[in-house]
Amino acid sequence: MSQKCPRCGFIHNCYCEAIPTIASDLCFTLLTHPNEPSRATNTGKLIDKLFDDCTITEWQRKSPCERCLPDTSPYSPVLVFPCEESVPLAKWHQKQQGAKSNFIVLDGTWQEAQKMLNRSAWLKLLPKVHLDSAELSQYQLRRNQEPGNLCTFEVCAEITREVGNEHDANAMLTFFEDYLLRFQAERSGHALTR
């Protein structure tokens, strides 16, 4: 019987060697819905493998993550979520004038992410940005996705692109396309054949 890879957890389709080296020093905080860590389809865990400054923390309705608060975060916290008061990411980035941002991404289904925002007064107080992406999602592992909705991994790749690191964003999306093929083969219990 084959062994699980201790790093990626796959048996037949280890993707460790496919993980790209990302030069970006972006900071991400993934606020994860309590249901998300147990889902095999979670893509936030991949961001943690790519970026040195990535923290994954479980969302708490009333207890904010200190890394997400303006007074305790080492960088300017900004929630990545499209809504009426959100501004385009490019506009936010330009206004920061080189100061580093802590990009907070709600990691869950779109329905869960909306509930997380609606139920947390502390999240509502954060500045918000939205992406101007016209990219179509490659992610087809969950049902009930609406057109234009990107998964957590794709959101982080698009942030990387919009702050000016096209090379890293392209490397991320090439890896993600390969990962999705490996994931489907792994879920079917066989090695990917090319």
Automatic annotation (TrEMBL):
This is tRNA-uridine aminocarboxypropyltransferase. It is an enzyme of class 2 (transferase). The lineage of its organism: Bacteria, Pseudomonadati, Pseudomonadota, Gammaproteobacteria, Vibrionales. PANTHER family: TRNA-URIDINE AMINOCARBOXYPROPYLTRANSFERASE (PTHR21392:SF1), TRNA-URIDINE AMINOCARBOXYPROPYLTRANSFERASE 2 (PTHR21392). Pfam families: DTW. Residues 1-188 form the DTW domain. One of its GO terms (molecular function) is tRNA-uridine aminocarboxypropyltransferase activity. InterPro entries: DTW, DTWD2/TAPT. Its EC number is 2.5.1.25. It comes from Vibrio maritimus. Keywords: S-adenosyl-L-methionine, Transferase, tRNA processing. One of its GO terms (biological process) is tRNA processing.
